[in-house]
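Revision sheet: structure tokens.
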Amino acid sequence: MSEVSPGGDGGAEPAEALPEYAERVLEVAELIPPGRVMTYGDVAEWLEAGGPRQVGRVMALYGGAVPWWRVVRSDGKLLPGHELRALDHYRAEGTPLREAGRKAEGHLPRLDMRRARWDGDGGDSGGRARGHT
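Predicted:
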């Protein structure tokens, strides 16, 4: 998914030169509480702009300065190439995980999306992200 490593320099431009949409995506990523996640689609829905691919692109290019591990795939799979770094963050924050089955590639857990997903309401309840009103 990502050509640029989260948390790395990634050639990102200084914050003042970020495209406006990228700034908005990164602001949402910073709102997600520790131990919770939003999908790429949730972030796009929250912003009422773009879609999952656009959010993913922003996170790939500019997400290193924000808690990138909290913006995730909707299937709960960990970000390819960054699984162990993300897993360290999830365990430190107490993010709900589903242990991997014996047949799972690499025996890596997945996010428990039902319990980990944040709806953006400012509280700590699960559910779908909703656009702000």
